[in-house]
Each structure stands twice: as structure tokens, then as C-alpha cells.
Amino acid sequence: FYKIIQFVLKHKDENQLSLGAKDLGDRLKEVFKERVIGPEYAIIPRINNQFIKVIKLKYEKTVSDKAIKEKVQLLLDQFYSKSENKSIRLSIDVDPL
Predict the structure, then answer these.
(1) pLDDT of residue 1 exceeding 90
(2) Per the confidence metrics, is the pTM higher than 0.85?
(3) Which residues pair with 60 in a beta bridge?
(4) Which residues contact 9 (CB under 8 A, 6 or more apart)?
(5) In whole angstroms, what is the distance from residue 39 CA to residue 7 CA?
(6) 4 pairs with which residues across the strands?
(7) pLDDT, tens only, 21-79
(8) Contact between residue 57 and residue 36 where contact means Cβ atoms under 8 Å apart
């Protein structure tokens, strides 16, 4: 069985969102390899003039949640250290429905 962490990225500029989502996706893939799915557009790609992309991280339930959280937090800190990524809104949902 697996757990899923869903990263939802939003921005008003589609190009900036695409670059930021690719950056975050690449960072996650460096650490978690084939467990990362995406980035891809959400089912509804734009709401209230905000473009939306989704990245999913799938991992086994036997893996420590604390270890995953620490690695993800480090990657997010690196992601937001780049000035062009600071305007991208990110929400994280663990085990979305």
C-alpha cells in the first residue's frame, strides 16, 4: 500500500508556473526517483485567473513519515530560495481523496 502527497502549484502567469513546477518536479525526482508523478495540469487547469499544476509523490506506508517530511521540507526551502519561485502559491495535501 502507498501514501500520496499532492503538491498543488498556482500562479497567474502560465509560463512562470510551468518553469516553477518543472523545477520542483526535478528536485523531487532527484531524491524520490520514480515515485514522483508530474508535474501536470490539474483537471481544471485554471480557476480565478490562476493556472494550476499538480505533482504527486507516492511512497510506501512502511517508509517513515518523518523522514519524508524532512526531505520534502529541505527541497521546498531550496525551491523557494530562488527569487522567481517566491510568487508561486503551493499547497500540500497528504492522502488526497
Answers:
(1) no
(2) yes
(3) 2
(4) 17, 20, 21, 24, 39, 52, 53, 54, 55, 88, 89, 90
(5) 9
(6) 58
(7) 999 999 999 999 999 999 999 999 999 999 999 999 999 999 999 999 999 999 999 99
(8) yes
